[in-house]
Amino acid sequence: MPNEPRPTVRALPLPLGVAAALVAGAAMPVQGRVNGALATEIGSGLGAAVVSFGTGLIVLAVVVASTRLGRRGLRDMPGHVRNGDFPWWYMLAGLGGAYFVLGQGLAVTLLGVALFTVANVAGQILSGIVADRIGFGPGGPRPVSSERFVGAMLALAGVVWAVWPTLSGAGVSWATVGPMLLPLSAGVLTGFQQAMNGTQTRYYGNPLPATFFNFAVGSAALGAAFLAALPFTGAPAPLPSDWWMYTGGLLGIVFIAAGAVLVRWFGVLVTSLGLIAGQLAGSLAMDLVAPVAGARMDLATVLGTALALIAVVVASAPRAGLRFR
């Protein structure tokens, strides 16, 4: 007989869940700024990703080893797999994060940040709808109601609107269609990654083990890619002494752990929309508080971010009964 999921909180209030998704999503632009600074310092984007994942893995290893919840999750993991609570390959969900980081390094230089973001968000929305519809996440099947469908379209429109000042000058051509498949597929994997993490968290009773496996698998994949590329790229520069350049892993922990918890209560789509809105809001705040050279603050960016926030409210509203098939 499969093991019963460990008890967790009975219900998570919607306003609290949305706030958690926004905060976790806002951590990603900060992580991008930190990892970007580290990549510039050492001259290697892939090397910066390895450092980011590696520091997060070290922190998680310490936390898991020093807490009863973490040790119990690792101890119970073989039993969950053996009893069919979830397939063993769910623990490889961290490959999705590694693929996203590799996609950033390969496609951003070809597409630019705006096109990469739009394609990635489209993939997340697509996987969120599919994963909820087929019941891939921990909450079981969730019909594609009119509210969820409209919310998803509003979120995509909000992202396009927010990045339109950059997007309009990108000179989109047929040559960009192929490279856009990389961030699109990375977004699809991100949605299913959150669903797999949420299913594991349901049985562990806490997000620590699933988050640890994500960083362990992601670190191994990125480390292998770094070693394979080393003969062609050469060794990176020595690591800097600035402590804040090593905080990217901590911010990644917040993002992955929050997603693993929230998908159980709100599904993959609504969780993804909340995280996307948080990323837009975080990017806007970063440009206001600590702008970088060449940063632009356009009305379209502000209005697009507001539309993405409205999309979360619409998608999470109680169903009215109308369903799209």
Description:
- The chain is 74% helix and 0% strand.
- The chain has 325 residues and is mainly α.
- It has one domain.
- The longest helix is centred in the C-terminal third of the chain and has 42 residues.
- The relative contact order is 0.22.
Name the helicity range.
over 70%
Number of helices: 10
- Give the class from helix and strand content and strand pairing: mainly alpha
For the residues shown, what is the average pLDDT? 82
Q: Provide the number of structural domains.
A: 1
Low-pLDDT segments, ≥5 res: 320-325
Distance between the first and last residues' Cα: 34 Å
Strand content: under 5%
What is Rg? Answer: 19 Å
Quaternary class: single chain
Q: Major sheet, described briefly?
A: none
Lay out the secondary structure.
Blueprint: H1 14-42, H2 45-66, H3 68-82, H4 94-111, H5 113-134, H6 146-167, H7 177-204, H8 208-233, H9 248-289, H10 299-315
Helix pairs in contact: 1-2, 1-9, 2-3, 2-8, 2-9, 4-5, 4-7, 4-8, 5-6, 5-7, 5-9, 6-9, 6-10, 7-8, 7-9, 8-9, 9-10
Relevant terms:
325 residues, mainly alpha, 10 helices, 74% helix, globular
Sum this structure up briefly.
The chain has 325 residues and is an all-alpha fold. It has one domain (41-315). The chain is built from ten helices and no strands.
